[in-house]
Amino acid sequence: MTFAIIPLLPLEGGYVKVLRARAAIRSVLLFAAAVGLELFVDWPFPGIVLVPALAFAIWMVGVVPPRRWKHMGYAYTGRELHVASGFLFRSHTVVPVSRVQHIDIVQGPVERFFSLSTLVLNTAGSDASAVVLPGITRETAEEIRDSIRSQIGSALA
Amino acid sequence: MTDAEGARRLHPASLLIDAARSARAYAIPGIVALVAGSRGEFRWIGIALLAGLVLGLVLPALRWRAFTYRIEGGALTIEQGLSNRRRRTIPLDRIQDVSLEQGVAERILGLAKVKIETGGGCADEGLLDGVGLSEARRLRQVLQRGRGASVDAPAETVEEAPLFAMPFGRVLLLGLFNFSLVWLVALMWLIGKADDMLELDWSALADTAEHASMVRLGLWTILALIGLVLALTVIGGVARAVIRYAGFRLTHRDGRFRLQQGLFARRDTVILDRRIQLAQVRGGAIRQWLGWRALEFQTLGGSDGPSGRLEVAPLARDTEIGPILDVAGFPRLQADGWKGIGNRHGLAMALRRGAPIALAASVAGWFEPWAWLGLILLAPVIAVALLATRHHDYALRETDMQVRRGVLRRHAWILPYASVQVVSIRQGPLQRMLGLTTVSADSAGASSGPRLDLVDLPAALVPEVARELVARA
Known about the structure:
The structure holds 2 protein chains of 2 kinds.
Chain A: H1 14-40, H2 50-70, E1 73-76, E2 80-85, E3 90-96, E4 102-106, H3 109-113, E5 117-122, E6 130-136, H4 138-156
Helix pairs in contact in A: 1-2
Chain B: H1 14-21, H2 24-39, H3 42-66, E1 68-72, E2 75-80, E3 86-91, E4 95-101, H4 104-109, E5 111-118, E6 126-132, H5 133-145, E7 164-165, H6 168-177, H7 182-205, H8 211-245, E8 249-253, E9 256-261, E10 267-272, E11 276-282, E12 293-299, E13 309-316, H9 318-328, E14 339-340, H10 344-367, H11 378-391, E15 393-396, E16 400-405, E17 411-416, E18 422-427, H12 429-434, E19 436-442, E20 454-458, H13 462-472
Antiparallel strand pairs in B: 1-2, 2-3, 4-5, 4-10, 5-6, 7-8, 8-9, 9-10, 11-12, 11-17, 12-13, 14-15, 15-16, 16-17, 18-19, 19-20
Helix pairs in contact in B: 1-3, 2-3, 6-8, 7-8, 10-11
């Protein structure tokens, strides 16, 4: 993708909906705060808080999720896992299978609704100790997890 | 199978230290007693004093009695606690580090804290807070021997020749290099306060004929003050260094390093070779020019401090650093074969460092015209930033990666591939415009401070660098 290290697979299309849903929830809170400000504080003219808040909410829900999704991707080579993300600050993380300490599969309520899950690989590192791959199906996450487990298991045995 | 005859307790003198710590408990009953006394309600005094007595003396004694440790069945078992009894069993095989610490109180009483650590964790899993010093040393040898030890095995006294030691003169030198800016800040504050007070005096004296001589006296006083503070600054830095590094001694035996340092509070730290993740050679602006550097090891779950960084040679020559690296099984810094990071790094650094200054000066200049002079700061900042290119290079070698970075403070890192955990490549908006990236090799036990990242590596080189790192990891 961006860094041309290895061809990456896109995340599940449904993940855009997860991002949108999350943005929508945050926007509702933001909106409530904006409405509160609008009503209880005297502004030069009406709508000075509400209009930008609305515009921001529309941008966060409508524009940002597909753009973010486009810049995300992953690849599992059997020896390492690559995860890429970010459109302003791009990042590409590589986790060698031999460095994985333990594996989590996480599903938040929104993700469960769209039948997606997140794979988290934990290493002994300090800054990048947990590498997160969201927006994949549960089957894919479990496949990767089982593959990693078998490799680590055989290494110890 | 070994069996100990019985459990041991901490040294009784540790009671004193515990009691002193619980002296805080005296404070509240003491205050209550005072208040009650002044009001004339005597029964409250009695209750408060009794409570103080219980908390201050009886509790530590009970705690001491409840704390036992023993070595049996190939494990160290520690039982402690009054109301919540806790029994912790640490298999001897799992013990990675045993280090001894002595605070000032412990030093005076001849005690030591024994800290026991198992693999990977950051907190100490076992703590014997206050055993006699000889018992502590004996315990350390016994615990490090692993299985087959018993509580009563005798200690060996072997003094090995130091791998690296800092004579007193060098400790003083280190103090001079590290001069503390705390005193400078204190001076600024003092001047500020004095100014408030002196303002009034000056206006009163303005009318008198002696005003001229007063001013001259004032000038000398100011110069003397500045001189005094500078001297205090230097003395402060040297004192801090002496307290921390006096008697610095590094030895190596049986696959582990041992460090001893400290004037009042003596620290005795042990670190296993295999827990060392990477080596960092650090320089400071002036000292590196004079040929002095510091060698640090980044360790897994370091017992020394929160960050896992261990200074094995706080101030040393390159000729002294080499042997330490050899003993640790680390390659030395290579002489040549370095790959430069590329010219655009300097450009990127200049933009990063210069932009905030330009912005601040412009914004301030909007309000105060003379603030535009702040732009003069841009010149040295940009000059240093452009030099960054010359001093940032890397090498991907057979067994390890080496990186050098830093203009004023030159840092060098030696990272064996086996220590690489995760490889990240990042790109901010500025880097995207310039076609640059930052490549980080994450390792265990890293702390704050400059990292061994390849900053502003041209994007075209990323695939091959990343693949190399990942393939060898």
